[in-house]
Amino acid sequence: MQMSSQVPSPSLEDGNWPTRRRSVLDWLIIETRNERFIDNILVEMCERLQAAGVPVARATLHFRINHPQWLGARILWRKGLAEAEIDLYDYGTQNTALYLNSPLYVINNGGAEVRTNLQALPEEHAQNSLYVDLKAEGLTEYIAWPLEHTLGKRHVVTFTTDRKGGFEDEHVAFLSDLLPALALVSEIRLKNRFVRTLLETYVGPHASEQILAGATTRGSGVTVGAAILICDLRNFTKLSDLWPRDDVIDLLNAYFDAMSEPIERHGARSSNSWAMACWQSFRSAKPMPPKICCRQSVRRKQQSPFSTRTTSKRAVNPLATGSASMSGMSCTAISVRATGWTSR
Asked: Do 112 and 85 meet the contact criterion of CB atoms below 8 Å apart?
């Protein structure tokens, strides 16, 4: 009986990713589970790529984030950096000429790849500030790819080399093999950061830490020593009846910023409600004497620009606020309802 020495051809069930088994990919999938921050993962990934012979000299991750203040963030690694650099971008950045002429715009609008030879820039890129700056740093080739997250969310990863002649085809194949895994790993960290930001915004940093640590059952809570300052915007009902909606929102934003900033400089947390009362709590190791609590509350309120000048052109009379303070033991607890949970 004659045996065939031919290897069976791969079937559709065998799949086509990755094109090759690589230790960097194994690490990215298996060994990053305990790393909380995506910037640390980017740094180690690039160091491992260099050790594997891929001449990466610069890499970036560009995320659109769900944050009330920031549109997006860029995480940047360069050869020699032990920690990544993180930059945040304001809302409106997407309308600037710098963004509209960037590779990010191409990728975010459906592009599958942007690959540019920095040693011989084509005429249409010769005035692009990004490419000019990268070339001046001695970099030779730039590649940008999309990171596809769930629900159609698209972010961007870029790699740049300083190797003469740019990336070889083997290097490009190596990097592109990492994209599906990097997308999964980055989405987990991005969602974790979003949940943390959401909790910190609506229940505060102290309660959010308790919730993320597992205090999610009804009655879960912690008792701490605290001083509480309550600041109320007077005559708000009348103002909201008389003023246009946008002016009322501008007033509330200015009021909350003015009251919160001097308080938060002293380590307090702030919250607001539809009752238009702004309250802050100062955690302390032991209850603060009421006289000291009141004295500090008044001094911090006086530091607010809102208490000495109006912040709206519509205000005829100076806008008034009232405040009250107290100190003692405070309890943050979880109240569970049919529709979810709240922090009280």
From this structure: no
- Round to whole Å and give the CA distance between 287 and 328: 5
142 touches 134 (CB < 8 A): yes
Residue 71's nearest CA partner among 59, 53, 89 is 89
Higher pLDDT, 271 or 132: 132
- 277-284 vs 221-233, strand pairing mode: antiparallel
Q: Quickly state the pLDDT bin for 230 (edges 50, 70, 90).
A: confident
Rounded to the nearest angstrom, the gap between the alpha carbon of residue 123 and the centroid of all alpha carbons in its chain is 36
Distance CA(317)–CA(339), nearest Å, equals: 43
| Segment 189-213 mean pLDDT | 82
Contacts of 222 (CB under 8 A, 6+ apart): 206, 210, 215, 331, 332
**CA-closest candidate to residue 25, choices 214, 229, 174:** 174
Alpha helices in the chain (DSSP H): 23-30, 38-51, 97-100, 103-108, 129-136, 169-202, 205-212, 236-242, 245-264, 290-302
2: number of CA atoms within 13 Å, CB side? Answer: 3
For tokens 């950061």, name the residue. Answer: 193
How many CB atoms lie under 10 A from the CB of residue 286? 8
Instruction: Give me the half-sphere count of Cα atoms (radius 13 Å) on the Cβ side of residue 114.
Output: 22
Q: What percent of the chain clears pLDDT 70, i.e. is strictly above it?
A: 69
- Residue 1, pLDDT above cutoff 60: no
What is the model's pLDDT at position 343? Answer: 46
Q: What is the pLDDT of residue 316?
A: 44
Distance of CA 339 to the CA centre of its chain: 27
Tokens found for residue 233: 């915007």
Helix (H) or strand (E) holding 71: strand 70-78
Is 287 buried (19+), middle (13-18) or exposed (0-12) by CB count in 10 A?
middle
Confirm if 26 and 47 have CB atoms less than 8 A apart: no
The rounded Cα 229 to chain-centroid distance in angstroms is 29
Overall residue count recorded for the chain in this entry: 344
